[in-house]
Each structure stands twice: as structure tokens, then as C-alpha cells.
Amino acid sequence: EVAAAHADALDVQIRMLRLRRSVLRVVASRGSSPEETKLMHRLTQLSGEERRRLIDDFMDGTFGTVDADPTAVAMVRAATPDLPDDPTGEQVAAWVELAELVGDEDFRARMRQAAVRQAAGRPLDIECDAGEELMEFTRQKVAEARKSGIDPLSNRVAPVIDDLVDRFAEVFARTPDTEFRNWMAQQFEEAHDPRVDRYWRLVWIVNGWQMVPNLIPVYPWLIQALRNDRAA
């Protein structure tokens, strides 16, 4: 029993030393300031239980008191970031950034707002049964364009945007003119927060998951394309 206890204690020390090594490598590669270095050490020296508690607090504080979409909340909870015992420098840096992000009250509010909007069936504030179908059409169109290698800032994007504008105008019973295109761009810009994309990328990095392009939200590409369309 004594030997087993010593072995367990050594396992803990080895994990901490590996983590400290990863932190030092990140500090050395980034030329971090003393303040940033202290933050890295503080956040990475949390125990596994303390790290889980930090994420649980984010989940409960963000979704626990609102009528959010159960599917969206379940997806966030299922993708809980878990820093491995021997993380790479990239994983350490991602965990530190992620820990700061989930503590940002404004970020929590945006995540909460998105989940509530989904629960109400009002993507882009569309209060009709066609809302989800319209969003799915948008996701498919953008996914196809990205798969075809269409740059949102190129001339090749025009037919894609025309199809999307026409479909949106049909749902909203509006004329697909310049005014409506500007309204569409504004709606997507207001609905998109780059920090949400960043959150998912950081989770994938921390967990060592392969990036899956189709899971990356369509908003950044679409916003660029709509801006390019307005500037043309």
C-alpha cells in the first residue's frame, strides 16, 4: 500500500512536470510577459477537477437560468475541453485562452442569446416555420461554395449570393434589391460573434480533435461575401 501511494504521488508529480514543461516551451516561443507567464502557470496548474469545475461554472452560468435550446446546450456540454496530462504547447496556449474566454461575461451573454434564439425557433429573428429551413438552405449553399473553393471576395461568389438573397427575399416577402441585401448583411453581422468560432476552435485544439471544416459556422464566409457584394 505504501509503494502504491508513492507511485500515485509520483504520477501526479510527473503530470505536473510535463505540464510545466509545456508551459515553459510556450513562454519561450511566445516571449510572454511576466504577467502572462504567471497567468499561464496559474491556469495550467489547476487540477483536472478544478478545470472541470471552471468549465461547469461556465455552462451553468451561461445556460442554467434561461430557456435555451436543449440540443445546442447538449452539444456544448458534450464538447467539454479536457487538457491532457502531457499537452503540447499549442494545447496549453489554447487552454489558457479558453479559460479567459469562458470567464468573459459578455461572451457568456452572446452564447446565451444564441441558445435562446435557437430555442425560440427564431434564427435571424425569423418568426415563422420557414426559419429553420432557410438557415439549412444557407448552410448548404455556403458549404457547397467552400467545398468548391470559392473565395468570398472573388467574382465567383455572385451567383451564390444571388441565390441566397432571392430565397431570403421570398421568405420575407421583400424585393431582393440593394436595400434588402444591406439588411441581410447587417442581420448576419449582428448574429455573428467571432468569439463563438474561436471558442470551438480552442475546444478542438485542447481536446486534440481534428478540425472539421463543415462544423465551422458559415457566418464568417457569408459576411465576407455579403460585404463584397455590397462593395461591388
Q: What is the typical, i.e. mean, pLDDT?
A: 77
Distance between the termini: 75 Å
Strand content: under 5%
The biggest beta sheet reads: none
Shape descriptor: elongated
Question: Which descriptors apply to this entry?
Answer:
single chain; 232 residues; mainly alpha; 11 helices
Descriptive account of the structure:
Helix content is 72%, strand content 0%. By secondary structure, it is an all-alpha fold. It has 2 domains: 2-116, no CATH class; 126-231. Helix 1 packs across helix 5. It is elongated. The N and C termini lie far apart (75 Å).
Question: How are the secondary structure elements laid out?
Answer:
Elements: H1 2-30, H2 34-44, H3 48-63, H4 70-78, H5 89-102, H6 105-119, H7 130-147, H8 158-172, H9 178-191, H10 194-207, H11 219-231
Helix pairs in contact: 1-2, 1-5, 2-5, 3-6, 5-10, 7-8, 9-11
Produce a short descriptive summary:
The chain is mainly α and about 230 residues long.
